[in-house]
Design brief:
This protein has about 270 residues and is α+β, with helices and mostly antiparallel strands. About 20% of the residues lie in helices and about 30% in strands. It has 3 helices and 18 strands. β9 (about 130) and β10 (about 140) form a beta hairpin. The termini are far apart.
Length: about 270
């Protein structure tokens, strides 16, 4: 009996010792770990909210199937505001390519053409293509505040733009162009037609070629002072010829997997209220 009582007392003492050590050292560590995990999940959830992506960036969805086909969320010459003579020479310049970059799904193909002796650069935009006269230099893309079909509401501040592209021209006759303009609550134009449009909140601009094969293209956004917190819209454009009315009528541009990249360390401190 004495041995049993001694063993019981030892077990009790050992149990109390373990409990004290747990309460003093182990439990606080577990609580800290749990708190850190909760903060991590909360931070990730916060960062995931509000990080807007471009509409139909993989160009899997299309509408108006047929001669006036356009990718959902994007507009082309088929929905442009053209002068009477311009509308006569308007041609389908945007097409759904059945094999995307990886041979699966679909991607966007943009073509430059010649109409009435003038090079017509193919383009898609989240705004509306406008050509008030037959002069190519007078054409522009524009966010239209009064029509939801020709605007992309946007309040985030991406760090860069990335996409996959393939461009057919490899000499100096032409280059493709991408333009993503973040702007306030006004009708931004591209190219700029007034002083306001000359100063968007942020811009990702690039003319490029791809040596005739698929390449990943990355373009950083350049922001003006306070530009990251005052954006209301995004005017995005891809064009198969970088200058209106000039270039190569055989230019072909394929675009796939358009994505906006965010610097998380900065996004946590950006407010768009």
């Amino acid at each position: 009996m004495g041995k049993i009582e001694l063993s019981t007392k030892v077990n009790r003492s050992l149990s109390r010792y373990i409990n004290k050590r747990f309460e003093k050292h182990i439990r606080p560590m577990l609580m800290i770990t749990r708190t850190l995990l909760l903060l991590s999940f909360t931070t990730l959830a916060f960062l995931a909210q509000g990080q807007q992506q471009i509409v139909n960036g993989s160009f899997e969805n299309w509408e108006n199937l047929g001669k006036q086909i356009e990718p959902v969320g994007w507009n082309s010459l088929m929905s442009a505001d053209l002068c009477t003579i311009c509308s006569i020479g308007a041609a389908q310049c945007v097409f759904q390519e059945k094999n995307g970059r990886n041979g699966k799904g679909s991607c966007l193909r943009i073509e430059s053409k010649s109409a009435l002796g003038v090079i017509v650069n193919g383009a898609v935009t989240t705004g509306r293509i406008t050509a008030p006269t037959i002069r190519p230099s007078g054409a522009y893309n524009q966010t239209v505040l009064s029509d939801s079909e020709f605007q992309l509401p946007f309040k985030d501040a991406p760090d860069s733009l990335v996409f996959w592209a393939k461009y057919s021209i490899t000499d100096k006759s032409d280059s493709a162009k991408v333009s993503f303009l973040l702007h306030d609550n006004f009708e931004q134009t591209d190219p700029p037609r007034d002083q306001v449009s000359l100063q968007p909140n942020g811009a990702a601009l690039k003319t490029f070629q791809t040596a005739g094969d698929w390449q990943r293209v990355s373009v950083p956004f350049d922001y003006k002072k306070n530009g990251k917190s005052n954006t209301h819209y995004l005017l995005a454009t891809f064009s198969s010829s970088h200058k209106a009315g000039k270039g190569n009528s055989n230019a072909r541009l394929w675009i796939d997997e358009v994505e906006l990249i965010y610097n998380r360390s900065e996004q946590a401190f950006i407010s768009n209220d």
